[in-house]
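ARCHIVE CARD
CATEGORY: sequence design from structure
SOURCE FIELD: tokenized fold
FIELD CONTENT:
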């Protein structure tokens, strides 16, 4: 029998046998995750597919010019029916983008965003390793390396992405077509399509080596850092989520994946699917090379620009040093020391371990008490949200982040 038709399960990829994925997968997934060769071949076939409806719209926008961008913005903000004589490509795109799935459970979206509201200043520390893990996807790295100013843009790009994460996970942001998060997903979908066209036009893009730029398999690699690693990071920070809360979060990311253009066959529907996708990504996509160290190292160096501490003062320098130790240790716990090293991240330290442990204890006690007090959870969410908003205001200012989604 040909291997691609075999029902035999393929052996775990190396990273799946190592900490933390070997432990976490056993804690959070009860079923066998191994894929068959037939499933792997099916997954690999999506490396040749971009986002056809968005790609056609980008071609149209390049052909028509500035008026097409104005029509796009009009359709996004007010609906396609308000646009006079829209091109067919714009009609086709919004026929897909306006499609709000039947399976969306609004109560689950609400509960998911409430869980995210419990993440305050910890958001940045959790986000750094979550973003960095996407840098162990060499094909995706080739796009980023060609965007220019590797070191100058690293911090700015990280903050812009964290801001997008905050937008799509905010209360009511994804609850309807004109929600702020829903529109942010549509905008980032177009950013990716513009980047894909730019890469396709370059003489140095190797389709044989790197397939389609920003293909569907790479799309799924954006789900894992935000849906899974952010959840695991929150748990390591003492913001413990039970099974039902994690399923609500993954339901939210199912909708986000749908809106940003992930193919329906690749969208995880629950926690078990998320872990199956993790297995597949570790087997087929997350395989570090020299570009991982380049981008990971650039991100780590960018912390000097991102972190909101005045390093010209003694107190600021101490805070900065402790933050470094904390993020490095948390990154090693979330990614494993081998992946962290491949990203040129520092090793875990005793100081970092104490800080991570202290953060866990503080948040665990706070959230546990809040759950039992009348309106305690609501009050804590308000406090944490204000903390995160203050942090975001500071790091956006520090990096000069562009929040306009006009990078395409």
């Amino acid at each position: 029998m040909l291997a691609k038709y075999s029902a035999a399960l393929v052996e775990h990829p190396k990273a799946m046998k190592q900490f933390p994925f070997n432990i976490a997968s056993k804690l959070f997934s009860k079923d066998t995750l191994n894929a068959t060769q037939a499933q792997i071949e099916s997954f690999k076939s999506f490396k040749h597919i971009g986002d056809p409806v968005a790609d056609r719209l980008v071609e149209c926008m390049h052909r028509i010019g500035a008026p097409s961008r104005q029509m796009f913005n009009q359709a996004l903000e007010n609906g396609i029916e308000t646009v006079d004589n829209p091109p067919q490509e714009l009609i086709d795109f919004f026929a897909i983008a306006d499609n709000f799935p039947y399976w969306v459970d609004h109560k689950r979206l609400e509960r998911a965003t409430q869980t995210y509201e419990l993440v305050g200043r910890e958001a940045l520390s959790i986000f750094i390793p979550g973003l960095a893990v996407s840098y162990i996807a060499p094909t995706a790295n080739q796009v980023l390396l060609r965007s220019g100013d590797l070191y100058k843009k690293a911090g700015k790009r990280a903050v812009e992405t964290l801001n997008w994460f905050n937008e799509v996970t905010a209360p009511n942001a994804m609850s309807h077509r004109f929600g702020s998060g829903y529109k942010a997903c549509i905008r980032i979908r177009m950013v990716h399509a513009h980047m894909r066209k730019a890469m396709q036009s370059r003489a140095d893009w190797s389709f044989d080596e790197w397939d389609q730029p920003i293909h569907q398999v790479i799309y799924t690699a954006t789900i894992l850092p935000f849906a899974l690693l952010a959840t695991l990071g929150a748990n390591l920070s003492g913001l413990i989520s039970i099974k039902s809360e994690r399923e609500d979060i993954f339901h939210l990311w199912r909708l986000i994946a749908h809106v940003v253009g992930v193919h329906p066959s690749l969208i995880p529907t629950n926690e078990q699917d998320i872990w199956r996708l993790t297995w597949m990504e570790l087997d087929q996509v997350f395989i570090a090379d020299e570009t991982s160290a380049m981008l990971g190292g650039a991100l780590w160096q960018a912390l000097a620009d991102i972190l909101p501490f005045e390093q010209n003062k003694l107190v600021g320098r101490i805070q900065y040093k402790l933050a470094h130790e904390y993020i490095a240790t948390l990154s090693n716990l979330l990614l494993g020391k081998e992946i962290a090293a491949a990203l040129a991240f520092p090793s875990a330290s005793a100081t970092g371990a104490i800080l991570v442990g202290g953060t866990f204890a503080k948040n665990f006690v706070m959230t546990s008490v809040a759950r039992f007090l009348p309106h305690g959870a609501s009050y804590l969410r308000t406090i944490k949200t204000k903390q995160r908003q203050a942090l975001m205001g500071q790091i956006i200012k520090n990096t000069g982040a562009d929040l306009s989604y006009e990078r395409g």
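CARD ANNOTATION: The chain is about 65% helix and 0% strand. The CA atoms of residues 91 and 278 lie 35 Å apart.
SHELF: design records, drawer C
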